[in-house]
Amino acid sequence: MKRVAVVSMVFCMLSACVGRPPADASGAEIYDQLCAHCHGADLEGGVGPPLGPGSEVADKPDSYLVLTITRGEGRMPSFERTLTAEQVDRVVAYIREKEAG
């Protein structure tokens, strides 16, 4: 079990190293490239917590998501050097859009 957790954590960390998305990438494209590996294609969670409807994150303000994406938290890596502020905003908008259904 410990081995699975370590492998999962390394996978998430490496997903932060896949490179920068194009400057004009949509929130969906950025999420698919950098977030879906851990948080699931449909925000259902996996290695990372779920982000969809009914999740703890769904009730948090957008500023919480921005800060978490930018600086990282717990096992989640920081994307401060990978994403611009505008790209982070697009990802947050995409997450909120998906939460709304």
What attributes does this structure have?
101 residues; mainly alpha; 4 helices
Main beta sheet: strand number and arrangement? none
Radius of gyration, rounded?
13 Å
Distance between the termini: 34 Å
By DSSP, the count of extended strands is 0
Poorly predicted runs are 4-11
Total helices: the number is 4
The helix/strand class is mainly alpha
The overall pLDDT, averaged over residues, is: 87
- Inertia-based shape: globular
Beta percentage is under 5%
Helix content: 40-55%
User: Which series of helices and strands comes N to C?
Assistant: HHHH
Overview of the structural elements:
It is a single chain. With 101 residues, the protein is mainly α. The protein is built from 4 helices and no strands. The chain is globular and about 30 Å long.
